[in-house]
Amino acid sequence: MDIFGNIESNVRSYCRSFPDLFTKAKGSKLVAASGKEYIDFFAGAGALNYGHNNDFIKKQVIDYIMGDGVIHALDMYTQAKKEFLVTFNEYILKPRKLNYKIQFPGPTGTNAVEAALKLARKVKNRTGIFSFMGAFHGMSLGSLAVTSNSYHRKGAGIPLDNVTFIPYCNTFSNGFDSIDYLTQILADSHSGVEKPAAIILETVQAEGGINVAPVDWLQRLAELCRQEDILLICDDIQVGCDRTGTYFSFERAGIIPDIVILSKSISGYGFPLSLLLIRPELDIWQPGEHNGTFRGNQLAFVAGRAALEYRKNTSLSDEVRLKARLLESFLKEQIASIHRQIEIRGIGMIWGVDLSRCGEGDLAKEVARRCFELGLIIERVGRGDTVMKIMPPLNISRDELMAGCQILGQAIRETLSRKSADGLKGAL
Amino acid sequence: MDIFGNIESNVRSYCRSFPDLFTKAKGSKLVAASGKEYIDFFAGAGALNYGHNNDFIKKQVIDYIMGDGVIHALDMYTQAKKEFLVTFNEYILKPRKLNYKIQFPGPTGTNAVEAALKLARKVKNRTGIFSFMGAFHGMSLGSLAVTSNSYHRKGAGIPLDNVTFIPYCNTFSNGFDSIDYLTQILADSHSGVEKPAAIILETVQAEGGINVAPVDWLQRLAELCRQEDILLICDDIQVGCDRTGTYFSFERAGIIPDIVILSKSISGYGFPLSLLLIRPELDIWQPGEHNGTFRGNQLAFVAGRAALEYRKNTSLSDEVRLKARLLESFLKEQIASIHRQIEIRGIGMIWGVDLSRCGEGDLAKEVARRCFELGLIIERVGRGDTVMKIMPPLNISRDELMAGCQILGQAIRETLSRKSADGLKGAL
Amino acid sequence: MDIFGNIESNVRSYCRSFPDLFTKAKGSKLVAASGKEYIDFFAGAGALNYGHNNDFIKKQVIDYIMGDGVIHALDMYTQAKKEFLVTFNEYILKPRKLNYKIQFPGPTGTNAVEAALKLARKVKNRTGIFSFMGAFHGMSLGSLAVTSNSYHRKGAGIPLDNVTFIPYCNTFSNGFDSIDYLTQILADSHSGVEKPAAIILETVQAEGGINVAPVDWLQRLAELCRQEDILLICDDIQVGCDRTGTYFSFERAGIIPDIVILSKSISGYGFPLSLLLIRPELDIWQPGEHNGTFRGNQLAFVAGRAALEYRKNTSLSDEVRLKARLLESFLKEQIASIHRQIEIRGIGMIWGVDLSRCGEGDLAKEVARRCFELGLIIERVGRGDTVMKIMPPLNISRDELMAGCQILGQAIRETLSRKSADGLKGAL
Amino acid sequence: MDIFGNIESNVRSYCRSFPDLFTKAKGSKLVAASGKEYIDFFAGAGALNYGHNNDFIKKQVIDYIMGDGVIHALDMYTQAKKEFLVTFNEYILKPRKLNYKIQFPGPTGTNAVEAALKLARKVKNRTGIFSFMGAFHGMSLGSLAVTSNSYHRKGAGIPLDNVTFIPYCNTFSNGFDSIDYLTQILADSHSGVEKPAAIILETVQAEGGINVAPVDWLQRLAELCRQEDILLICDDIQVGCDRTGTYFSFERAGIIPDIVILSKSISGYGFPLSLLLIRPELDIWQPGEHNGTFRGNQLAFVAGRAALEYRKNTSLSDEVRLKARLLESFLKEQIASIHRQIEIRGIGMIWGVDLSRCGEGDLAKEVARRCFELGLIIERVGRGDTVMKIMPPLNISRDELMAGCQILGQAIRETLSRKSADGLKGAL
């Protein structure tokens, strides 16, 4: 694998955590060149909710390519786009009584975030955006400005302006109430903070450490936005597409954001795609005002439509809720019991095992490394990368799910034991 | 097609110029649901240099999907990426004695431009970037700041800072010399302009109106950057990948940029992909400092590697240069002769027919509309969208190339005649 | 007085609150052309701590002008500057064991704030500044960015960047603790807020509504700055020069800011002057790096030195503390008793009578207007300008002080009665 | 003089060029503590057009202070302000048929520039400002952003945004025409430069190196602003108040700026004062929207009014024009003849002797040092501080003027001889 070290930029990262050469993948398994199989609790950072090479989707993808369907067409009218739009409207929007216009920006999450911020500023003719501490929204300059991680922010090379960060719901000490705080600074003519065009929200912070916003907090936030004439943008890139047990993550709170951003699993097959849902009265874009060569990825439309059928045919939401309970039980009973300082947080099929208070050192890093040895791919997130993030494909079998969880438990136990032994040795 | 108007955002644009429903595509032809065929002089804005559904590439794409190759893997090590890297290195870099590290950012051009600007600022620890008037680099906030079109810039909703625009080589009046100007403001302690981290360059401005930078201008610019310790970033997104008759557009000038950006046709099949070539000593990225879920689009690696083989097997560069002469002759002889104010500009297989001085009104728009009726898809670029852009797939057959050119000539003649007749009527 | 309306810009403001034509002034009295005398509880917004036309200072000013002393010399060496420096060092710095370098920027408070911010950013090589909600630091772009009042901020016409606002000590609800908040966001790698170069502080917010920071809060803030390597800038423009009962306002907390800004009463006679006190190791200015034609106002040096002698000869600090008690007693007993929702806040000889919760409407505005009719000049500050600000010259006689207070009491009582009567009428 | 080195900040600058301790001043002479007299070709950087301690003005200043006139009153109505307004209107505006509102911002030039920029952005609702290369407008953040000197700009510590620099009229090579350039970038939708709110102009760049804009260039600029709906701000801080032979420097071109900024000699006696002249329809300030404690410096009003009388009584403009010819002749005949590479530039009583092309090294610095030894105070300006700036009080006697010029000539000759001798020695 020297080729990567020799030719690929030093910026590469996941390959450092998962140092094997992957060749094939199916369902919840990744297979290395050596034949070693890995259970996948990472799921392409959320892009593979329907599993690797899902056969149902695959068939339609193959058929489309075989038939010389249009592969690239920018934002021209195509059959593939039409069918995606109709299906998304029929299967997702209508049943939820949601009325949104759909925009296809460049096919990555950050492109969509950029579009949302531009549109919000244009609609409200205000320059500011509020974002939450712990938020992750992307790496291009506009998205980076609303991303809170200092490691990434430093990469900008210029000051990141026009954004104010607010503590997220439950991550600040001493009963700090973010909504009260927001209310107060918006009401105060001397807060030094102008009313923003929008507040950008993750209902569950994934990169921030698996922080799940309570329903009433989400409702109070949405109400505040309404009262103050501030747009609410929901970045559902990672936790939309059924991840939390409903198609959109905000459904559990009964709120309706002004703009919703989807990406990652929206194409169903790991193909790049992203989209914005926009309340119709906000769709004041001029033609081509925001553009991009790969907006409207046709093959992703094909796969995305198939994915919408797949999730419907398999009653995937129900399945997620069932497995969520299984997962929650295991984590709270089998994992939390390993060390009294372990904290379990999550919803649906995204869960965090927070190891930040279980002693010093790179505990989580070592746990992840041991998991990998044992055949489990699992990411770390949160401050200091100390939270193990469990995010398998939604259609993972219960056996594989439990097998992965067992590996995680074993890795935590082993690592803590070794650390404890090392500590004793160190003390002697 | 009401579905699009009802559901898709008002931001859609190309569909307004090319209002038909497309279903299939092959080579240099797009096919509508009605069965009508169109010659494609647009080529996915440069993403389809090797033609729609190129059979050589298609076979490898199909095989990969059929074999359950990894489709999504962020920046993990995969067989598909490895083969792409090796092939790109062997076929492209080594023969040109180029020594670059390769970075895969999010798979759109603007993601790559963002990465390049961040890296340049980080390397040089300076905040400014110089860009050229007429430049187009993308729609996310960092890329938009170096894009000159006021229509797009207004979309930002905030001031776009840390960029200074310089007149492009041959687009300013009265013998203005951009390199002299650059030299002077960099030397002047009272120019008010700080030395930038980088200058971002298109060797041929495509969106800016098909402006081809002369070789000596490119050489003087590169030399100035070297002397002043400023990075030279070449955005080869649209005119790289053989478009100008060499693989990289800057080869004709014998210069070596510090950072090169490729996208569009790099995947060969219209799949989203982009990459940066970085001089090794500049590759000071920290792991994951710039990231993105769809970086490392595996299927695009497969198609991209196939495309590199395809271009080699078919001696595509030679073919381009031959057809370029054919094209140039036709345009200068058959098109320029229609009206003495028509200006022809271009290189390789990217040419512009500048109609801006052929009378008033939406001449170019009407020409494009008439072309579309006659079965030719052709885009307009430049100030006021007055330049017809001829950019077919590179492997278009000579017959189709000539057929498209004939349609363009017919459309210009007809439109000018009608306008002239209207003018006479208006004068009566 | 039509001349003013006809010729002077609409920006004029205090003349609207105090609409008389003033000709002469002495001690704590302003005299109008009509002969009407006003007690001055405004004191030139703090520039007249030693009274109008103080005879002791006046004599030295007259002598200097009569003797053709240098009046204007930028930052050349002059006898007047030398004597000021020596006296300030001997009388103020040495007795307090303070070791500061002195800089004379342009002679207004905002010029000095600009210099302080530039120096802090230069020293720390960071772009951010923290400021407090309610803060007022000036109207030029750098100072305005750290000023919180939205009315003033809107005047900038561009986004005001590189500043983060933090709630001030005791102005936020529910036991919010600013120091805890600061500690948390500085410790959190995902707060989205970079470590600032400096925190700029008023120990008593005057324009913000007479908010007095508690001693322990000031101490915790200073300690936090020390631990986090953040400069502490104390803007003592309005409440320095003996206003709070000690020469510097921060003396009561025993803290030593890294940079101190003085202006307003530093010249003793209402002449423009400002200065920075800089910890010697931070004085990394290059010669002339910050300049200005009126830096080093010679006549202000003469008057300023005389004022330093005057305050010493008259034991002014002791006098302030005595009168402060008198003032506090009166306000808490005679004024607070008028209405149970009146809140009294203050220290030394700067006090606020907060009328914001005493019913609706422009109560404070009407009280100020009635005071003016009755011969008292008094300003309003705070959110909505609802706090009457009592800030007479420090050497006001006790009789005049009490007379002014009586007028204020009368005005509040009368206005409340009238409002109450109006309310009754309105209700009938 | 150790006291200064020990206590005063390293930022002090002019004292390094003129290292003597000054005590008294009269007319065009400064007197040191030692009794040594210096002819003043510096004139307080333009603040002393009417000479040091001008007796006519002095009398009125003394009378005002003796009579306990109001010294400090912010922007309240005072007799002193009224008389200044009336006199300025009668003596300056009306005879020139100028219709302006007058604003008194904080009493330094940079405060006034800040106010002008804020007002322009507010009026036009645009964020950009154009400024000229070589321009100097002040050190606070807004003014610094339109100041071109990189030495000063670096002091900001943050990027200085929202300003575009344009080459000044005659300082760029090869027949570059700034007005053509401006016209072109404003007309070009792809210039990357948005239409600015205003262009800020010095009709003579003083700090920039004594560059005098030709009349037709000024007229074309004014016309361009009018056509493009861009405000023209004339910063007449240094070359207004009769310096160029007319009261306003722009009178020679017959143009009428939208906003004019005066400071420096407007108070006539070296007291801090500045003002804006605003076309009435642009005076959309809200009351107090821009403020400052020392706006409306009363003693400066008294002196300023006296100065207006003085210049009228002495027909100063005529006197300036006469002496200008004398000065020009001397410089072009006696100074330019010393070395064929000396360039003479100037107008009225501001002239530059450009030594930049007379060999290497700190020639100008040594000339200035030698002048100082010989009893002449003279500043250096321009790129590299290589231009000797001749700017005596306007009422300097012809004898003193000639005496100063003789010293300058002697210093240049001596320094060139010595350098030449050193060069010979170095060559041996």
Model description:
The structure is a homotetramer of 428-residue chains. In chain A, the strands form 4 sheets. Chain A has a 7-stranded mixed β-sheet, with helices on both faces. The first copy, chain A, contains 14 helices and 17 strands. With 428 residues, chain A is of the alpha/beta class. The longest helix of chain A has 30 residues, at 398-427. Chain A folds into 2 domains: 2-54 and 317-427, Aspartate Aminotransferase, domain 1, CATH 3.90.1150; 57-313, Type I PLP-dependent aspartate aminotransferase-like (Major domain) (Aspartate Aminotransferase, domain 2, 3-Layer(aba) Sandwich). Chains in contact: A-B, A-C, B-D, C-D. At the A-B interface, helix 1, helix 2, strand 1, helix 3 and helix 4 of A face helix 1, helix 2, strand 1, helix 3 and helix 4 of B.
How would you sum up this structure in a few lines?
Four copies of one chain form a homotetramer. With 428 residues, the first copy, chain A, is of the alpha/beta class. In chain A, 39% of the residues lie in helices and 15% in strands.
Compile the SSE list and pairings.
Four copies of one chain form a homotetramer.
Chain A: H1 2-7, H2 14-17, E1 22-26, E2 29-32, E3 37-40, H3 43-46, H4 55-66, H5 79-93, E4 101-103, H6 109-124, E5 129-132, H7 141-145, H8 150-153, E6 163-166, H9 178-187, E7 198-201, E8 204-205, E9 211-212, H10 215-228, E10 231-235, E11 259-262, E12 275-278, H11 298-313, H12 316-335, E13 343-347, E14 350-354, H13 363-373, E15 376-377, E16 379-381, E17 387-390, H14 398-427
Parallel strand pairs in A: 3-15, 5-6, 5-7, 7-10, 10-11
Antiparallel strand pairs in A: 1-2, 2-3, 4-12, 8-9, 11-12, 13-14, 14-17, 16-17
Helix pairs in contact in A: 4-11, 5-11, 9-10, 12-14, 13-14
